[in-house]
Amino acid sequence: MPALANDNIVYFGAGAAKDKKTSTTTDKTPFSIGYLSIREDRNLVWGLDYSREGSVLDSTYSQRNAVKQSNSYNLLLGRNLSKFESGRLDVALLLGAREKTKDCPNSFLGYQCYANTEPTVEHSFNFGVVATWSFSKLTIGIRATGESTQAMLGVRF
């Protein structure tokens, strides 16, 4: 019996933030870039995801709680739900960390922080779900987290 092939997907997503613009949230469009690996032999889906979603209160570069778009680093773990001749439906849990605050003593010389030290970054838990429909070499899907909902478009290879 021939071995089943493993597939890889690279995707881009963009969408809408869960919270509307306020004094502590950003109005920038959330987006994500990610990678999914599909293990045909185990119906396993796993991946990595980087996103700009949610808000971080930034006190670097002599700012006081400036509202900026947050960086989010995530792991995706899931499985195949259905296989058809025309494609496959996969779902994965998204678990990761998102920047919440950045802080450091002010620099008097224009650096990000005093004496060009690294800022202290506080993270919060990020969670969500990713569902994809793959057919031929194209993948479409949806990515929903506590911070945003995004439509996804990817290439399968």
Key terms for this structure?
157 residues; mainly beta; Porin; 8-stranded mixed beta sheet; 0% helix; elongated
Describe this structure in words.
- The chain is mainly β and 157 residues long.
- The protein has one domain (7-54, 68-96, 124-156): Porin (Beta Barrel), CATH 2.40.160.90.
- Helices cover 0% and strands 66% of the residues.
- It contains no helices and 8 strands.
- The chain has strands spanning 7-17, 31-39, 44-59, 66-83, 88-103, 120-135, 138-145, 148-156.
- Strands 1, 2, 3, 4, 5, 6, 7 and 8 form an 8-stranded mixed β-sheet that branches.
- Strand 6 (120-135) and strand 7 form a beta hairpin.
- The radius of gyration is 19 Å and the shape is elongated.
Strand content: over 45%
User: Helical proportion?
Assistant: under 10%
Q: CATH topology, what is it called?
A: Porin
Q: Any guess at the CATH architecture?
A: Beta Barrel
So what's the overall shape? Answer: elongated
Number of structurally distinct domains: 1
Compute the average pLDDT: 90
**What's the β-strand tally?**
8
* Poorly predicted regions: none
Largest sheet composition: 8 strands, mixed
Look at the helices and sheets and give the structural class. Answer: mainly beta
